[in-house]
Each structure stands twice: as C-alpha cells, then as structure tokens.
C-alpha cells in the first residue's frame, strides 16, 4: 500500500503495520531502527521482484554487523530525511521509502562509516578503539573528495542514483530513558560524568563486583578519551585530560588483573607508563600481569623498577619475585618431564 509522506518527492509503501499509538518524537528522543538500503533504477523505479531487489541491496544493518541504527531527534544528523521518515512510523512498523537523489546525497558517507564500524567490531581491542570507533561512527564523517574506497558507494555518487530505504522502527526512547552515547554528548557533559562513574566503580570494587566496577571505569575512559581526541596533542588542555585518565586506567587495570585478563592489563598499564614512566602502581600491576603470563624477564624488570622508586614495597615485591621464581621452576620441571616422556 502506497501513501504520501510529508517529505516532498518521497513515497512510502507499508510492508508491515506497527502497533500502539504514534510515538512522541521529542527533541533528543532516540529512534532505534534497522534499515536496508536499495539502489533504485535511474528513473527512480524499484527493481521488479524480491530476487532482483536483493541484488540491488547496498547495506542491511541486520547482516552488516554494526547493529541497529540509532538516531537522536533534533541533533542535525547528516541525512535529515531519515528523521523525517521515522517520524511517520509506528513502533514495529516496516515500510519502504523511495527517495530522490537530492535527499540521499550523503548516504555513501554514512555507509562508509557504518561498514568501518562493522569491520572493527569483529576484532574489538579495548576502549581506545571503542572510543575512536564510536566517535567516528556517528559524527566523524569526513568529506568524500577522493572516493569512499567502496565501488558500489562511489557509483551512487557518480550516477546520482535515487535510493529506497526499508526501515523497521524498533523503539523510540524519550530523553532520560536511555544512557546517552558518547558521540551525542558535549565535552562538558562527559567530564561531569567521569568522577561520578569513577565513584560508582569504586563502590562496586569495594563490594567485590570487579566486572561491574570495570564497566564503570571503562565508560569513564570512553568519555574522557572522546574529549581527549578533540584536543591538540601535548597542549595544556590535552595534558590536563591525560592526567584525569591515569587513575582510571589504573583502576580499570586492577579490575582486569583480578579478572585474569592479563594481556589487557599489560596494554592499559603500558599506556599509563607512556604518560608517567615512574608510576609505581602501573609498574607493579604490569609486573603482576607479566608474571601471570609467564614473562619472567619483563615481570622482574617492572618489579625491580617499582622497588627502586618505592623502597617501602620491598617486602611485597620480594614475595612476588619469590613466587614468580618458584612458578617458573615448577613450569620448567613440568616441561622437562613432558620432553623426556616423548623421548621414551
């Protein structure tokens, strides 16, 4: 069933009706939806038949790997038409909207970024990539002056092809019903939340909920990292933000250490030591992670350096070194036994 829309030049075909009353699209409400983008014929017509339509699909968030798309109402998103379209839908509704090229000029930029997000999600490597990824996902859309690196997207621009979007509106959340994403917040808002998240993390840590505490520290690091990447490296403001980051990295690393995620402990404490080479907590926690990961030389180096900086740790570090030496001795004995067993 085709119906007119409030957007000039756009036709809506209802595929599946929604339920309930029309949602309220207040400013800063979050609309969450899946979409499938379809390349139309040059005359604006839809390919005939579902099989041919499938051959013209450009992106599908259900299979792409980036998850449902999230749009904040009234935040001047790159493609204004999407906000106008979802405002004409009910939750649960599935509809196809055919749009002229002038309304979808920026789609290749969005698609390029979504594909990058999906690719990176296949190999997550911790909060630094997560923070940059989230920033790039929704607001880091660079100008595509030299092509997108995707032939299908470049063709859309070169041929100025119209598009259709099949949208399934999953939910609409009012402001205050969801935790704002990093990209949608102002720098001041992020900084205000950092100490709150840190205190919440501290409380969870004291209660023995190390995973919960790690989640709070992780979120705080996301916020402060997204502020940091907007500053000029080595500038005064950048240095101030890096100083805020250090205790969060240390707390996060301690949680990871107790959760036996040793490689991540090494990575995050190494970041601390890049910023503060003589940070005793960073050296000690990295030393423990190295020791747990059977890296004797690296562990001994970090423990001894921590002891040089803080002689009061002598009893604690001596114990760590003895434990490490004994563990390595037992491991060598076991390995020797396995080798001899193979010979005989």
From TrEMBL:
GO CC aspect terms: cytoplasm
GO molecular function, one term: peptidyl-prolyl cis-trans isomerase activity
Domain annotation AIP/AIPL N-terminal FKBP-type PPIase: ranges: 26-165
Record's keyword annotation contains Repeat: yes
PANTHER family: ARYL HYDROCARBON RECEPTOR INTERACTING PROTEIN RELATED (PTHR11242), TPR_REGION DOMAIN-CONTAINING PROTEIN (PTHR11242:SF0)
Main location: cytoplasm
Stretches forming TPR repeats: 280-313
Pfam families per UniProt: PPIase_AIP, TPR_2
Alphabetized UniProt keyword annotations: Cytoplasm, Repeat, TPR repeat
SUPFAM superfamilies: FKBP-like, TPR-like
Localisation per UniProt entry: Cytoplasm
Name of the featured protein: AIP/AIPL N-terminal FKBP-type PPIase domain-containing protein
PROSITE patterns in the record: TPR (PS50005)
């Amino acid at each position: 069933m085709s119906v007119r829309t409030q957007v000039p030049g756009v036709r809506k075909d209802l595929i599946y009706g929604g339920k309930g009353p029309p949602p309220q699209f207040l400013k800063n409400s979050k609309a969450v939806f899946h979409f499938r983008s379809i390349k139309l014929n040059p005359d604006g017509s839809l390919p005939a038949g579902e099989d041919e339509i499938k051959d013209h699909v450009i992106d599908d968030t259900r299979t792409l790997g980036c998850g449902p798309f999230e749009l904040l109402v009234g935040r001047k998103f790159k493609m204004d038409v999407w906000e106008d379209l979802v405002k004409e839908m009910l939750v649960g509704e599935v509809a196809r909207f055919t749009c002229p090229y002038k309304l979808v000029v920026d789609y290749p930029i969005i698609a390029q970024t979504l594909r990058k997000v999906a690719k990176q999600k296949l190999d997550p490597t911790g909060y630094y990539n997560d923070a940059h990824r989230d920033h790039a996902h929704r607001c880091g859309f660079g100008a595509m002056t030299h092509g997108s690196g995707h032939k299908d997207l470049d063709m859309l621009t070169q041929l100025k092809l119209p598009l259709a979007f099949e949208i399934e509106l999953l939910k609409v959340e009012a402001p205050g019903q969801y935790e704002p994403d990093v990209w949608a917040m102002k720098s001041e808002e992020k900084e205000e939340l950092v100490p709150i998240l840190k205190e919440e993390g501290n409380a969870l840590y004291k209660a023995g909920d190390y995973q919960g505490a790690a989640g709070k520290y992780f979120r705080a690091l996301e916020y402060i990292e997204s502020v940091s990447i907007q500053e000029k490296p080595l500038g005064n403001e950048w240095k101030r933000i890096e100083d805020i980051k250090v205790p969060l990295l240390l707390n996060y690393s301690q949680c990871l250490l107790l959760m036996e995620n040793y490689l991540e402990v090494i990575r995050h404490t190494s970041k601390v030591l890049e910023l503060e080479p003589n940070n005793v907590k960073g050296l000690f926690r990295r030393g423990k992670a190295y020791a747990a990961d059977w890296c004797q030389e690296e562990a001994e180096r970090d423990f001894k350096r921590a002891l040089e900086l803080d002689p009061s740790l002598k009893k604690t570090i001596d114990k760590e070194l003895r434990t490490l030496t004994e563990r390595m001795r037992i491991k060598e004995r076991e390995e020797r036994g396995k080798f001899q067993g193979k010979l005989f």
